[in-house]
Write a structure and sequence with these properties.
two-stranded antiparallel sheet; alpha/beta; 7 helices
Length: 242
C-alpha cells in the first residue's frame, strides 16, 4: 500500500507519531490514511445475530491486485503482494466451503480482471454486488515506511454498523489465531468497502515492509493460521461461533 509523505520534517514526525500511536490504540494505516478510533483495554467482538445456517450464506472473496498491479513489494525479498493475496484467498475459499459457505472469487489466477485498472475495479464491484451475496472479504498485504510496524488489521467502511461488526469479528479471531494482542477494527473509505452493498471488510494480513511479517507471510504454516482466523471470524459474525 502507498502512503503520503509530508513536505517537512515536522509533518513527517507528526505522521509517524500518529501512525505508531494509532496501532497501539487500534488505529491503522492503509494507503497512508489513518482513521483514529477510541482505544479500548481489550477488543471484544460485537454481538452476533441469532445463529443461522452457514450454507445459506454467500461470501465473496476478493484477492487484491493482480496482473500488472502487483501491489506492495517486500522490502527484503521483493515478493509481490498480489501472489500472497491469491494464495491466502484460495486457502480461505477451501476453508469456507468446508464449513458450508458458498464462495465466489473475484479472481482465481495471477491475472487481473481487466487490462485497465478502472475496468478491473468495476468488474470487482459487479461481482461483489450481485444478488445473494452476504458479505465481502478483500485480502491484502500492507506496507509502511516504519519497518517496525507489523501484524494484521481490518478495515470497514466508516459509518457502516454491519461492516464494523464484521471487521471486529474477523480481527479479533485473526489476532487470536496468530497469538497476537487484539486490535480494534478500523474505519476507512476505500473502493472495495465503499462500493460494496453487502457488509465488507479489507483484511490486511501483515506488513511486507516488516522483515518478520515478510518472511512469515510467505510460509504455508502462517497462511494457514491466517485462514483459520479469518474463517473463525466470519463464522462468528453469522452466529456460528462459540
Amino acid at each position: 500500500m502507498k502512503h503520503r509523505q509530508g513536505t517537512s520534517l515536522i509533518a513527517i514526525a507528526a505522521v509517524s507519531f500518529i501512525i505508531i500511536s494509532s496501532l497501539l490504540c487500534g488505529c491503522a494505516d492503509l494507503d497512508g490514511i489513518c482513521e483514529p478510533t477510541e482505544p479500548l483495554p481489550v477488543q471484544t467482538p460485537l454481538p452476533s445475530p441469532p445463529q443461522t445456517a452457514l450454507g445459506s450464506k454467500t461470501v465473496v472473496i476478493d484477492a487484491g491486485h493482480g496482473g500488472q498491479d502487483g501491489g506492495a513489494v517486500g522490502r527484503i525479498t521483493g515478493v509481490k503482494e498480489d501472489g500472497i493475496n491469491l494464495s491466502v484467498a484460495l486457502l480461505l475459499k477451501d476453508k469456507l466451503e468446508q464449513l458450508g459457505f458458498t464462495v465466489i472469487m473475484t479472481r482465481t489466477s495471477d491475472s487481473a480482471l481487466a487490462d485497465a485498472k478502472k475496468d478491473d475495479m468495476k468488474m470487482r464491484r459487479d461481482i461483489m454486488n450481485q444478488d445473494g451475496v452476504s458479505i465481502v472479504v478483500s485480502i491484502h498485504m500492507n506496507k509502511f515506511s516504519d519497518t517496525s510496524i507489523k501484524g494484521p488489521m481490518a478495515f470497514y467502511m466508516k459509518g457502516s454498523a454491519e461492516g464494523e461488526r464484521l471487521a471486529t469479528s474477523i480481527i479479533c479471531a485473526l489476532c487470536d489465531a496468530l497469538g497476537n494482542p487484539r486490535r480494534l477494527a478500523n474505519p476507512g473509505d476505500y473502493f472495495v468497502i465503499r462500493e460494496s452493498v453487502p457488509p465488507a471488510v479489507i483484511v490486511e494480513c501483515g506488513f511486507l515492509s516488516n522483515a518478520d511479517d515478510e518472511k512469515l507471510l510467505q510460509t504455508a504454516e502462517h497462511q494457514s493460521k491466517l485462514v483459520e482466523g479469518i474463517a473463525a471470524g466470519i463464522t462468528a459474525y453469522f452466529g456460528g461461533g462459540e
